[in-house]
Amino acid sequence: MPFAASRTLLAAAIFASAAPAFAAVQTAPLATTEAGKLAGTVEDGVASWKGIPFAAPPVGQLRWRAPQPAAPWSGVRQAVEYAHDCMQLPFASDAAPLGTAPSEDCLYANVWRPAASPGAKANANKLPVLVWIYGGGFVNGGSSPPTYSGARLAKQGVVVVSFNYRLGRFGFFAHPALSRETGDGVLGNYGFMDQLAALQWVKRNVAAFGGDPSQVTIFGESAGGMSVNTLLTSPLAQGLFARAAVLSGGDGGTSPAPLAFVEQAGVNFAARKGIAADDPQALDKLRALPADEVVDGMNLASRPSGDAPTYVGPFADGKLAIDSGRAFAEGRFAKVPVMIGATSADIGGKTGFMVAGARSLAGTLAGQGVPVYAYRFSYVAESLREQGAQHATDIPFFMDTAAIKYGDNTSARDRAMSRAMSTYLVNFAKHGDPNGAGLPAWPRYARASDAIMDFAVAGKPVAGKDPWGSEIDAAQAAKP
Length: 480
Prior knowledge:
Blueprint: H1 3-27, E1 30-32, E2 37-39, E3 41-43, E4 46-53, E5 76-78, E6 108-114, E7 127-133, H2 151-154, E8 159-163, H3 168-171, H4 176-182, H5 190-205, E9 211-221, H6 223-233, E10 243-247, H7 259-272, H8 282-288, H9 291-295, H10 324-329, E11 338-343, H11 353-366, E12 372-377, H12 395-398, H13 402-406, H14 412-431, E13 451-455, E14 461-465, H15 469-478
Parallel strand pairs: 2-5, 7-8, 7-9, 9-10, 10-11, 11-12, 12-13
Antiparallel strand pairs: 1-2, 3-4, 4-6, 6-8, 13-14
């Protein structure tokens, strides 16, 4: 074979072998944020970016400080894997086990959106945004669990954002020395400060991913639902979202607690580590503690108890987190459409905290003219064979990740319920109303009609008067 011909064939072979890698580089979705450019991935029609810093790592001297701006970067940052979840002792029985190792360096966000069609102008139409806030009792949880993926929701025409916020003593901690250092600033609730910082980041940057910053829906479950209630009433969160969904968040967010009480818990913890309350180096010594010593064995299964508490958790600081129950009753909250409910066998049972709390708050909000859509999740995945829907079992159905949660055991009925519930949520994000073509009508809640949507045991959404309403009301009225 002539040399020229062989050289041509060799070049063609080299190009052919390199083509897949070249195509992968070319098709990686790019987004330009305020801190720099990001390269994500595309899979099954969904573009995603993971591990995006929305604030500086809260380590060293930034431990127990408000989140600071993320450092900008040059070039293109690869955003293809989840970053660390926030520091904690993982909970063995967690309904959504973490997908990454915990670390104090954890303030990262993740974004999913429908992939652009070939030849289409990227981000031509801004999409509604869903922002997920995980639960875990404010001591566990993270954005990396597979059942928290936003990919399936994004396929329905929305941008989905999840993020991490500080937990346990990293997220909720006070000490007299910290109060002196902070002065008149916001104290103690660093986890809530992270949530605010994430929502502010969304407002400034989500358009780079094709999202509409004026059409943001926050939704969270358990501690995430309580966080939504806190954000609904926080003076500092106003204007950061247009709708909210509360999954098993009870009837409030934060309760009043004297700062001195919360500070004393910090003093007690410091003393446990050999740091005296009047030590002039107390803060430096506390910030120098290894992260696992700050966790100190605490998680959902093991919380400190006794007469000298070393952890209190979220509290009403009066600036970011206020007395949510009182604020709701007095009409001092964001008047945005709200979806709210709980599972049928939730924490506290039929007449307890989650179920009764959701019912109470739905009535309070609806009574002030807010569009409210109340639900109860009674469905049990066919493989579970349990009596009643347990706490957190509605998450994979609202996020359309039931097939991820239950794997090969996922039934056709499970998938149908997952499609229906996720479609209601997406409709709510798009219009402030969950109703849409092909779905049973979900009536707006009012105390007089008392109509809720029951995601029923039989596997279909059924609207009607709350069958437990009278019993719950009677039980609440009988409480001292």
